[in-house]
Amino acid sequence: MLTPLSWIYGSAVQARLRWYGAGWGHVHHLGRPVISVGNLTVGGTGKTPLVIAIGEALLKRGVGVAVLSRGYGGRGERAGALVSDGRGTTFAWEESGDEPALMARRLPGAAVIVGANRVAAWRRFGDALRPGVVILDDGFQHLAIARDENVLLWDATDPIDRAALLPRGRLREPLAALSRATAVVITRVDQADPGAVAAVEREVRDQAGTLPVFRARFEPQSLVEVATGREQSPERLDGARVLAAAGVGRFDSFTHLVTRANARVVEAVRFSDHHPYLRSDLERLVARARDIGADMILTTEKDAVKLEQWATPQQGVWAVRIHAVIEPTGPWEAMLDRLAARVGRPA
Q1: Neighbour-count burial for 306-340, b at 16+ CB within 10 Å, e otherwise
Q2: Residue 174 — left, alpha, or beta (φ > 0 → left; ψ -120 to 50 → alpha)?
Q3: 264-292 pLDDT, tens per residue?
Q4: φ, ψ (nearest 5 deg) of residue 196
Q5: Who contacts 194 (Cβ-Cβ below 8 Å, separation ≥6)?
Q6: Residues facing 324 on adjacent strands
Q7: What is the distance between the alpha carbons of residues 176 and 324, in angstroms, rounded to a whole number?
Q8: For the chain, does the N or the C end have fewer beta carbons within 10 angstroms?
Q9: Can you tell me the mean pLDDT for 177-203?
Q10: CA distance 185 to 271
Q11: What's phi and psi for 256, nearest 5 deg?
């Protein structure tokens, strides 16, 4: 029944692509190198960990970094906001949205700007920032901004051979859009069947020839106590009885990560993506963890930025801090080197 609606949606997508392809849609240049990180599908593919990984790598190269994001769910989404200036000034998640707030914390040397109209937000705040690279978060369909690298993510646990356009499936664009990318990162390769990863690689070859293809997995880096911010080794999860609770796009990937760290998930509580937590949500989780004898409540860092205002050390609420491992390393680092080398040159 949804197939005709997918045809209508697909026609609208193609019309928009032709509009920009014909030069009728204005493409804005931000005056500095831009690397876009985006999806072909709705839902979580691991964009935020990839943005953080890219930002960390560029900062280590001595390059200024500005993240430009929509700021979904934050008060600054409509008017635009400077979430972080890269010098220690940050806004609360209610202003920025949960993912930009997390990126600002994980990238303290980077600026973070949000706004549904990202061109307008950049014009308002970008000129005051030090030179560097712009990371365009969730930017693959944001055709109004020019980019030097167009990195497209595909979740390996999402079968590409059954992909269909919205609303029948999860595709924002047809698979032919792979040809617009300059690189593809297949994420969560450790959670998928090898045949599923190979199927994505075959599709990339069919649509985009020799496009560079990378594989990424997400691993625990540390545990962060939500109430205090103190860190412990992820080895603490070994054998722990855990109540896993999160509001993320791929909840099963979160629980898989936890079980791979040898924790025992005795109960899982799933909230909607970007869930705006109330104090009562945390109180219910704490009571339930006590009832089932859980050693800790475990959540994601994205959820933690919203829970920390109520959490206390006695409640045993911890977040898993993850980092992205991207392979092959050499070509990935070479791409970042190219971006870093462009800083200071005319864009």
Answers
A1: bbbebbeeebbbbbbbbbbebeeeeebeebbeebb
A2: beta
A3: 999 999 999 999 999 999 999 999 999 99
A4: -70, -40
A5: none
A6: 218
A7: 27
A8: N
A9: 96
A10: 27
A11: -65, -45
pLDDT tens digits for range 129-158:
988 999 999 999 999 999 999 999 999 999
Tell me if 319 sits within 8 A of 277, measured CB to CB: no
Q: Are 68 and 134 within 8 A, CB to CB?
A: yes
The tokens describing 172, both together, are: 């924002």
Dihedral sign for Cα atoms in the order 7, 13, 18, 21: negative
Other C-beta atoms lying within 10 Å of the C-beta of residue 161: 10
For 27-60, b/e burial (b = at least 16 CB within 10 A) is: eeebebbbbbbbbbbeebbbbbbbbbbbbbbbbe
Average pLDDT, the chain: 94
Q: What is the pLDDT of residue 130?
A: 87
pLDDT band at 345 (very low <50, low <70, confident <90, very high): low
State the Cα–Cα distance between residues 284 and 257, nearest whole angstrom: 24
Tokens 């297949």 label which residue? 186
Identify whether the C-beta of residue 29 lies closer than 8 Å to the C-beta of residue 126. Answer: no
- Interatomic CA distance for residues 2 and 12, integer angstroms: 16
Could you give the percent of the chain with pLDDT greater than 90? 89
| Selection from 247, 241, 248, 284 nearest residue 265 by Cα | 241
The residue count for the chain? 347
Radius of gyration (Cα) for the chain, nearest Å?
20
The overall pTM is greater than 0.85:
yes
206 to 147, 192, 199, 210, 294: CA distances (angstroms): 24, 21, 11, 9, 48
Backbone phi, psi, residue 332, to 5°? -65, -45
Q: How many CB atoms lie within 10 A of CB 112?
A: 32
Residue 13 one-letter amino acid: V
Site of tokens 């993240």: 67
Tell me whether strands 296-300 and 241-246 are parallel, antiparallel or unpaired. parallel
Round to whole Å and give the CA distance between 117 and 142: 10
Q: Give the integer Cα–Cα distance in Å for 224 and 173.
A: 37
